[in-house]
Amino acid sequence: MNIDNPADKTSKTNHWFNLLMIAVFTLIGMFIGNTLGLIVVLPFFGFNFEVLIIELMSFQNPQSRLPMLIVQGITAVCAFIVVPVWLLKRYNIGTLKGLFPYQNGLLFLSLLTVAITICAMFANSPVIEWNKQLNFPDYLGWFESYAAETEAFLEKATIFLTNFDNPGQFFLAIIVIALVPAIGEELLFRGLIQKELRGIFENPHVAIWLAALVFSVFHRQFYGLVPRMLLGALFGYLYYWSGSLTYASIAHFVNNGFTLVMLYLHQQGLISFDIQETESTPLETVVIFLIIGGILTYIFVRYHQKKPTLLNE
User: Fold this and answer.
1) 257 vs 106: CA distance, rounded Å
2) How many CB atoms are located within 10 Å of the residue 37 CB?
3) What is the pLDDT at residue 65?
4) What is the pLDDT of residues 212-250, one digit of tens each?
5) φ, ψ of residue 150 in degrees (nearest 5)
6) How many CB atoms lie within 10 A of CB 188?
7) Using CA atoms, how far apart are residues 305 and 187, in angstroms rounded to an integer?
8) In three state form, how does the secondary structure of 246-304 look?
9) 278 vs 2, 125, 127, 136, 159, CA distance in Å?
10) With contact defined as beta carbons under 8 Å apart, do 96 and 263 qualify?
């Protein structure tokens, strides 16, 4: 299969097959990872599986926070790192070296990526507020109820997991919530799914936005669907422009890690700003960050346009 030539129509069947295998084995990886995680944390609950499930689903006992992070970490590693790496080899989709090639100017580009991501996070604030207040038409009332219930459950879980008791839990959360997804989810959604979609639709922009939509839907937070899709598109374009998942992974890590750091600093009383507040950034601030982010993005793109062999793949 020639994945580097999206115009090769003879490979489209292979791309669809690869997407199917990615979906199937990701679900299998999630199941296996979740099962392994539950087995690992059984000793925390006296080897009583019923108590384990009740405690992990209640989000009330602070002693359950560490086991929850362990289960989530093991599940994420299995589904988003082990499975994609195996798929790369099993179906000859690509190589890790090809997805994370070494490039000159790595430090400069990494710092540029960090700045671009922070600008995007602040510029995304009005979209986050708008999406949270979105109302569905009457004929989609059933979906609105499902979305609201799912959102409330996931928000409760997030608040519970990020209410850190000690620095150890904070650093574990950085690994589980920021580092592992930054590597694993970028491998899955950009390194695998986006490349397969590009091979099918022969258009990198369609592939980027479809992969971003799949990425956002996968998280099941429909009152955050649009802002997460925009972030997913940013990650996708960073990969498309540079030819390396390194910068998409850095951006993903900064997005998740920055939020965790701000939460922890607020909980420790070191800053008064609460990042969990839903009020959007003032419009003039959003415009400033949009302008700065646009300039930095232009610099990022221009840098890689001078190296055409790195573009697009």
Assistant:
1) 20
2) 23
3) 94
4) 999 999 998 999 999 999 999 999 999 999 999 999 999
5) -65, -45
6) 25
7) 24
8) HHHHHHHHHHHHHHHHHHHHHHCCCCCCCCCCCCCCCHHHHHHHHHHHHHHHHHHHHHH
9) 46, 9, 11, 20, 14
10) no
Tokens of 194: 């986006």
* Contact status, residue 164 vs residue 170, Cβ threshold 8 Å: yes
State pTM to two decimals. Answer: 0.90
Helix, strand, coil proportions of the chain in percent (round to 5)? Answer: 80, 0, 20
- For residues 188 and 31, give the distance between their C-alpha atoms in angstroms, rounded to a whole number: 16
Task: Decide if 66 contacts 172 (C-beta within 8 A).
Answer: yes
> CA–CA separation, 8 vs 20, rounded Å?
19
User: In sequence order, which residues have a C-beta less than 8 Å from that of residue 252 and are 6 or more positions away?
Assistant: 181, 182, 185, 186, 235
Distances (CA, A) of 120 to 30, 173, 275, 297: 30, 23, 15, 10
- Mean pLDDT over 61-66 rounds to 93
Distance CA 40, CA 46 (A): 12
Q: Taking a C-beta distance cutoff of 8 angstroms, is the pair 110, 247 a contact? A: yes
> In whole angstroms, what separates CA 31 from the centre of its chain?
19
Q: How confident is the model at residue 200 (pLDDT cuts 50, 70, 90)?
A: very high
Length of the chain: 313
Nearest to 213 by CA among 225, 204, 196, 205: 225
